[in-house]
Amino acid sequence: MWISTRGKLNRFDAQTKTFAQYHSDPNNPDSISDDEVTMAYEDRAGHFWVATNNGLNLLDREKGTFVQYHHDPHNPDSLGNSVINSGALYEDRSGALWIGTIYNGVSRLPGEPGKFITYRNNPGDTNSLSHNNVTGIHVDKAHNVWIGTETGLDRFDGQTFTHYRHDPKNPKSLSPGTARTITEDAQGRLWIGTNGGGISRFDGQQFIHYRNEPDNPKSLAGNLVKNIAADAKGGLWIGMQGLGLDYFDGQNFVHFKPDKEDPNSLPDPYIYALFVGQNGVLWIGTVKRGLVRYDPATGTFTNYLLDPEQPGNQAANWVQDIYSDQTGLWVGASSGLFRFDPLSEKFTHHYTEKDGLASSSIVGVRGDAQGNLWVSTTNGLSRFDPKNKTFRNYDAHDGLQSNEFSRIAHAQSPDGQLFFGGVKGLSAFNPDKMMDNPTPPPVVLTSFSLFNKPVEIGGKDSPLQQAINVAPGITLRHDQSVFRFQFAALNYTAPKKNRYAYLLEGFDTEWRYTDAENRFATYTNLDPGVYRFRVKASNNDGLWNEEGAALTVQITPPWWATWWFLSLALTLLLGLAFSGYRLRIMRLRRYSQKLERDVTERTAELAAKNKELEAFSHSVSHDLRAPVRHIDGYLSLLRENIEPTLDADNRKLIETIASATNHMGTLIDDLLSFSRMGRQELSKTSVDLGALVADVVQEMAPETEGREIDWRIGELPVVVGDQAMLRVVLVNLISNALKYTQKRERAEITIGCEPDQAAETVVFIRDNGAGFDMQYRDKLFGVFQRLHRMEDFQGTGIGLANVFRIISRHGGRARAEGAVDVGATFYFSLPKEKA
């Protein structure tokens, strides 16, 4: 039994019936931190916690000692305040302990150790890390962790950090400059490469320096050392910035530099990564030339570009680290993670951010006992499973020093613990104990806003009469059109890595995802109706609470959109529409009757006038024929009697009279034909167009004597129509083709039928004659319409009008296409009928 008082902590042993007292001793760090106890608490794991006015204490039951937790102003991860309120200890379901302090709010202590332990510089603690910028790490044979920092070298024994710095007054101190790389030789000596101070060798007592000596060609090539690797012979390979590669055999430095005259030489003097493989083969990571292999047996360098299409491109070929496992080499580069097969000498895999890496800019690669790769980047740490090709990413929210890691600043202890350094400290973890958070987080709605203002609970006209997280639903007016939900996942282990997804059923078609920085959902101008808002969340390790939280949202319509108003309005509209329809029908009937009377009267009038016009045209044409014949007869007598006595001018006048008389006769004949075609009854029979065309062409043969004409007559069908009238159509169209091609050395006239049409037969006559301008095509089939001068081509302007009338009377169509000086094509169609 434990009894706490304001003066001391007492434990009563029921078996011995004795008390044990625990007192604070300022000189004993293992004693309780203060005698004034505010609360004692035993958690589910059996840990006994004691809160005091000067910190929190954890009792070690076996030793009877305490681990003290205090507020440290230099450590943001320490207790918020050392004065703890009475009764202010609470354990949540994850096992985390919540501590309420007097002046600085609530602190949370995770129930289980975090995934990562991070060590940082504490200005008030001389035993802490010397500087937060960690640049190199090595674990020696004695399990000490050696850390290179911006201010020197640290040794960490698991409890405290021992610092080694450059002392200008002590030649046996560490070389100046940042400690970039640390390695150990077979004798257990450390070799530290610095950024400007060359190399320091440390035997545990003193540092011995190796620097560039301008007058000594066998000294170190340069003092900017980027990497050191020991081989099986006891030698050291040293990579430098801009000065190539050195090999140190214990006495002298041998230099390897690029040689433009030697294709087998080192291709790039900027070396950042070194790895000694089987048979002493050295693998080299360069800045601009990718991966390089050096074979000591042959003394040759072989270059393998990460991107062969961009040789010399630093962004594409900068190798930062090299790691080897049973499958081959893993190359960490500024452009991603590459797997290289030494047998085939090819890169077989390439992984980037698109595949799941925290960043494509890789600065370190290290394996664990489970076959996973741990890849440090400039934006977090990635665990890669090569078998399943999956990534799991960690960042500062998980407890890492930061998201930015340093180049090749990593190491592994014999017990499997991994160390990675970055710009804000050193992170350590055991890969075998990296357990994901198994608890899905509870999800709650935390607030509700209208027009970006929080809604008051229980206020006048407020849609919320109780807290949003317990309200069964919410009802909004139609004019409350902009509203927002805020929500939270009650997971406090790396809460910034919680993820959320929300959906408004009835509006959203898929889940919308967001992060811990944007825990809200906004909706605007929704239609009236009933919706259901749902939100779910995952914890820091991606485990989702699929049930989440939900709330019904009802948006009421305006009065003019309610069902009763719409029903009334619909009834009224239907009544008005029916009345209007009846009135419209009555008016249409009266108008239709009047229109029928007007059409009947007008049709009769037009028929009478048309009959008069036809009769007049026939009479005029018939009456004109006799005078024209008399003129032609007298003209013939004049030619016989007096033409021999006339001079050339008078004979030309007689010829002009004769030509005009012939034209007048032709015009009168065409007018009579045009008049007859309009009055004559159709006598439809089966007409073989092929035979009819052949007959017309044969009839016109005398007119074509002496001309070169290429007739191209295709297969023509049998149609239903008036054979005499269709003959007139063909005579007009074929004679036109002959007339307008008379100026061609070789006339081409094609007569054919377009591909079978379902309802009509389409016939065409095509020539390569004078053609016409398509903008005048509407005039072609008008009476007395001509598109060419009489001097160029004779004609009356009635032939095509006759064609149009005949085809129209058959229920068909006539049209034409042409181009000036190219030719013309005339089409006519006839409906498909049975004779």
From TrEMBL:
Gene Ontology MF term list: phosphorelay sensor kinase activity
The source's domain of life comes to Bacteria
Asked if the keyword Signal belongs to this entry, the reply reads no
How does it sit in the bilayer?
Answer: Multi-pass membrane protein
Q: Which GO terms describe its cellular component?
A: plasma membrane
InterPro entries in the cross-refs: HATPase_C_sf, HATPase_dom, His_kinase_dom, HisK_dim/P_dom, HisK_dim/P_sf, Ig-like_fold, Reg_prop, Sig_transdc_His_kin-like_C
* Entry EC number(s): 2.7.13.3
Where would I find the Histidine kinase domain in this sequence? 619-834
Q: Where in the cell is it found?
A: Cell inner membrane
Q: Which UniProt keywords apply?
A: Kinase, Membrane, Phosphoprotein, Transferase, Transmembrane, Transmembrane helix
Q: Does the keyword Transmembrane apply?
A: yes
Cite the Gene3D superfamilies for this sequence: 1.10.287.130, Histidine kinase-like ATPase, C-terminal domain (3.30.565.10), Immunoglobulins (2.60.40.10), YVTN repeat-like/Quinoprotein amine dehydrogenase (2.130.10.10)
Reaction equations catalysed: ATP + protein L-histidine = ADP + protein N-phospho-L-histidine
List all membrane-crossing ranges. Answer: 559-581
The main location class comes to membrane
- Per UniProt, the enzyme's principal EC class comes to transferase
What is the protein name for this chain? histidine kinase
